[in-house]
Design brief:
The chain is of the alpha/beta class. The chain has 2 domains: about 1-40 and about 290-380, Rossmann fold, CATH 3.40.50.10350; about 50-270, Glycerate kinase, domain 2 (Alpha-Beta Complex), CATH 3.90.1510. About 35% of the residues lie in helices and about 20% in strands. The chain has helices spanning about 15-30, 50-55, 90-95, 110-120, 145-150, 205-210, 215-235, 250-260, 270-275, 280, 305-315, 350-355, 360-380; strands at about 1-5, 35-40, 60-65, 70-80, 85-90, 130, 150-155, 175, 185-190, 265, 285-295, 320-325, 340-345. It has a 6-stranded mixed β-sheet, sandwiched between helices. Strands 2-1-11-12-13 form a 5-stranded parallel β-sheet. Helix 11 (about 305-315) links the parallel strand 11 (about 285-295) and strand 12 (about 320-325). The longest helix has 22 residues, at about 215-235. It is elongated, with a radius of gyration of 22 Å.
Length: about 375
């Protein structure tokens, strides 16, 4: 038997690679002669860098960049096994956890560090950049990111704008003549799993501003400033990003990446499937085992289990999901290519116990899945 093992991370307990190793151990406990194909997965959010580095035998690079409030922070990004693809999680440089709760203020926070990570990757000769944009501390429309790459955002006096969404209202002109020359010919893809536009009732400021520390007054200022940024982008760059689905992601970084770098917004799991070459690796398998920390109704809409099951369905390979917990609506994945799903918890257990013993529980459940699959596939 040939088994493809392609789980996401189990948050707070196992990385995608650790989860895959536990599943593989269970599979081989049941069928020692089985051939396993291990492909750690992610959906563009936290853990995407490590999952793709592990899946492609790449490396993680550390650099010192500018944090959300202008301080220096250590942040990592991945260079994949092909040597020409970089994968960046913007949260590593511009994420909300980097700002203490009492200092969260999207009028001031910047994506400059995310741009520095992109510049660092360009210095290594990459030709393809994947940016995961979840978990931001910012509502600056990607202005800081663009400035770090050489874009000039100028006020009426020809002076460079300062950091933060609060500065965008004074923007008069955008000049890309000094944009990093290494950007020429580089493909930028954005792992984006939300469809919020830049402005409006579902936009970056009104939906996500409060969780980043914005008061009601700040939200209205940020909303006005993002709309102003979109108008200047339309005038100077001839790009309409204001109502683009996903442009409001990460405080408008989605819009900024499209406007300044010509990026393409795509569902994160699709990008990871392509970058990890999951489809090619799954060919010829008899079974796929995937999983993540929780399975519920949202899992059927662009999450890792849904993406892996979709590839398996296309290839005619049965897919089984193992998860930490089962939530309302989890049965929806059965209509998306998952043949069956299981919780790894063997009985009543505290959350701490489930997290601490996730490796053991996951291997045990995978072993039983494999024993059942062996019987079924043998009988066929």
């Amino acid at each position: 038997m040939k088994v493809c093992i392609a789980p996401d991370s189990f948050k707070e307990s196992l990385s995608a690679a650790e989860a895959a190793a536990a599943i593989e151990r269970g599979v081989l406990n049941a069928v020692p002669e089985a051939q396993t194909v291990v492909v750690p997965m992610a959906d563009g959010g936290e853990g995407t860098v490590q999952a793709l580095v592990d899946a492609t035998a790449g490396e993680v690079v550390q650099d010192t960049v500018t944090g959300p409030l202008g301080e220096k922070v250590q942040a990592g990004y991945g260079i994949l096994g092909d040597g020409v693809t970089a994968v960046i999680e913007m949260a590593a440089a511009s994420g909300l956890p980097l700002v203490p709760p009492g200092k969260r203020n999207p009028m001031l926070t910047t994506t400059f560090g995310t741009g520095e990570l992109i510049r660092s990757a360009l210095g290594r000769g990459v030709k393809h950049v994947i940016v995961g944009i979840g978990g931001s501390a910012t509502v600056d429309g990607g202005a800081g990111m663009a400035q770090a790459l050489g874009a000039r955002l100028l006020d009426k006096n020809g002076e460079e704008l300062g950091f933060g969404g609060g500065e965008l209202g004074t923007l008069k002109r955008i000049d890309l003549s000094e944009l990093a020359p290494q950007m020429v010919g580089v493909e930028v893809e954005v792992a984006c799993d939300v469809t919020n536009p830049l402005t409006g009732p579902e936009g970056a400021a009104r939906i996500y501003g409060p969780q980043k520390g914005a008061t009601p007054e700040m939200v209205e200022t940020l909303e006005s400033n993002l709309a102003h940024l979109a108008r200047v982008v339309a005038k100077d760059l001839n790009k309409d990003v204001e109502k683009l689905a996903g442009s409001g992601a990460a405080g408008g970084l989605g819009a900024g990446l499209v406007a300044f770098l010509g990026a393409r917004l795509r569902p994160g799991v699709e990008i990871v499937i392509e970058a990890s070459k999951l489809r090619e690796k799954m060919k010829g398998c008899n079974l796929v085992i995937t999983g993540e920390g929780r399975l519920d109704g949202q899992s059927a809409f662009g999450k890792t289990i849904d993406g892996v099951a979709g590839v398996a369905r296309d290839l005619g390979v049965p897919a089984v999901a193992i998860t930490g917990s089962l939530g309302e609506g989890c049965e929806k994945v059965l209509q998306r290519g998952v043949a069956a799903y299981f919780s790894l918890v063997p009985g009543p257990a505290s959350l701490d116990e489930a997290l601490t013993k996730a490796d053991e529980f996951l291997a045990r459940t995978a072993e039983q899945v494999m024993r059942l699959a062996q019987v079924i596939l043998h009988d066929r």
